[in-house]
Amino acid sequence: MIAEIGLAALWLAAALAVLQLIGGFVGARNESSELTALVRPAAVLQGLLCAVSFLALVYAFAVTDLSVKLVATHSHSMKPMAFKLSGAWANHEGSMLLWIAIMAFAGGLIAFIERRLPEKTMMATLGTQAFVGIGFYLFILLSSNPFERLSPVPMEGNGLNPLLQDMGVSFHPPTLYIGYVGLSIAFSFALGALLTRNVTPEFARVMRPWVLGAWIFLTIGITAGSYWAYYELGWGGWWFWDPVENASLMPWLAATALLHSASVLAARDALRTWTIMLGVVAFSMSMVGTFLVRSGILTSVHAFAVDPERGSFILALLALYIGGALIVFALRANTIAEGERFSLLSREGALVVNNVALSAILGIVLLGTLYPLLTEAFDVRVSVGPPYFDPVSAIFFLPMLAILAVGPLLRWRKDSFDRIRLPVIIISVVTVAVLALVLALSDIGVLPLLGMAMSVGVAVASFMPLRGRAIRRVPLAVWGMCIAHFGVAVGLFGIAADTAYQKERLVAASPGDTVDIGPWEATLASISPVAGPNWTAMQGDIFVSYEGGPATETFPQARSFWAPQGETSEVALVTRWNGQLYVALGNMAEDGRWQLRLWWKPFVTWIWYGGLLIALGGALALVGRVVGDVRRRSATQRGEERRAEEAALVAEPAE
Amino acid sequence: MSDNASRGLKPKHQRLVLVVIALVAIVGAGFLAAYALSNQASYFYVPADIEADPPEAGQAIRLGGMVENGSINTAADGVTVEFVVQDGQARVPVSYTGIVPALFVEGSGVVAEGAMRADGVFIADNLLAKHDENYMPRELEGMSSAELREELQESIE
Known about the structure:
The complex is a heterodimer.
Chain A: H1 2-29, H2 36-62, H3 69-74, H4 81-87, H5 92-113, H6 119-143, H7 167-195, H8 201-232, H9 243-268, H10 272-294, H11 308-332, H12 347-377, E1 382-383, H13 386-406, H14 421-441, H15 446-462, H16 476-501, E2 503-509, E3 514-517, E4 520-531, E5 535-546, E6 552-554, E7 557-562, E8 565-570, E9 572-576, E10 579-588, E11 594-602, H17 605-654
Antiparallel strand pairs in A: 2-11, 3-4, 4-5, 5-6, 5-7, 7-8, 9-10, 10-11
Chain B: H1 3-7, H2 11-40, E1 42-45, H3 47-52, E2 60-67, E3 73-74, E4 80-86, E5 91-97, E6 109-116, E7 122-129, H4 146-156
Parallel strand pairs in B: 1-2, 5-7
Antiparallel strand pairs in B: 2-4, 2-6, 3-4, 4-5, 6-7
């Protein structure tokens, strides 16, 4: 019954999307149409119906309703409750339902609260949002129905891929999806503004918080995904340039560029066409990512089902939306008047360079990700990995860091080098000093060396914009910028330090053996079998001590799941402020010794702290912008009321 | 890019300069990517390819095939595995130091990432074994099929 309610809610939502589409585009042409009044309620109701539908699926998973095919194929009654719930979206159909639910919810939210833009633009925006939504409703209802029943009802479910039975999965997909799908709002706003010829600073100010919100979630999602891969796969790496990772990085790069260009448009009325273009590109990258991940052309832990029909469907949607948006862009871009001019040496100029560099990196990642698919069409199988991505993206990333350090110091429109000479000298001296110091003390690769030096330079530079300002009166948005840029420095330092100084050891050890790894000493005490709710494992009992200090006991496991069958490595992590010791238990060698793989990873945690700082900076900026906007609006309102009262007072005696 | 240079330009030209810089950077990125891809992409080989046209020693490649029956040998250090990958036509000895994946067994499909050593031994940095039906290295598709098993049988007999 619950499953039928979920399905019915989804169909109803799809019908409302059609109404919203028609009403929206009628309203964009003719505001006085009766249909216009229905658009906002349709969007809100759609959001609620999708929420109901999603909750119905979560409920089916929570009670393990095996008559629902999706539950039977992906869940198991013995699974812990947390993984039953997260199992609802750790599969193709469920994740698409999550996608559409977030999309409808976000659409409902803008319909409900966003009233700053001209109504025509809002109608075109909501119409576009419905147009995109309909494609995904059709996709889910026609080819990926999550509520399909199964008869006869099986006795037990198939269970969930063991790699996905982890808290990371409860957290990582929803945040990433909020980010992906949140960008659909930017896409709709961009097209709405383009269709109604209303590309104004006000439009950028309205769009910015939504982009910012999506970007914050995307940042958290990528950071969480990276940490998940790090500890769950047991390979000791935190980024593999896997196509699936790239699929999340590309929308992030586009959204980062969009965020900065929207700031230029909001503050200075420049970069109009470019901002619209980025709005289109950002969500397009989300859809490209979904296509790569969900179509089955890539095989990975994320490609839940290899189904050519679904792949073609998503490809058709992709062509329709990206192609359609680009055609509208091509037809309308010339109607956008040129924005304000600016000098090359100005805040705008720096942001343009930042945007160009981000776009170049985006192009490089996109080419590298699609290249294997391209060559496969000619029957040549290649894989593209770090030897391509690392140096080629660094060529644009390192100059971008230099701009990141200097750009925020510049004034809008026009500036002179003389004014920022002192901070630039300080930043340069710090960077060169660190470079020389690291070079003198250790022998490391060029990229980690540059990364480390620039990370310190950027860290110093990130707080320079506060120089000469009264700290208490600095707007929250500026704090956000400083903290986000500081986060980039922290993350980069972690990446550089881990790459340059990590130590790895692989040994076969018997109980009682001691292994040295960097400053650590690890002693294997024993290996014993343990059991969990749906797995059994061999568990190592290992004492580790840092530089001869007190020993910490750790328990790495090699787990075997039985429903479905699979093996995972549960690594043991010992975290210090300056890095992490990573211990993975391998297989038993023929002579009875156990394989142990240990890494000492200096400052590796800073990578994820950096990601979180970036997200925190975004959150501060978002709060600052929203609070500022609410204040401004209530002030304007009070002003108007007062003027109206005065006008009334003046008008009265005349009567 | 210096202020002096831009001061001498008319505003219209400044816009043009920006557009040109952006175009040059993006096109440059494209060429750079194309060049790097042709050099850095690691090609997929089966043992027959290696016999026919051996890749340069040290060049990163991926080697795929079946693990020959009876060929897996663990070295005295307990963490180095030596085995032979074959595809029915040719055989390539492989050496791997690390923790082998759970489903790495004799007669199963495997993809090894690494490079050939000058003496003809493939040094693997990473092994990918077929994990389950839903998760396996893409190169193994079709390779674990009945045909290949037959070929494998023939080669062993």
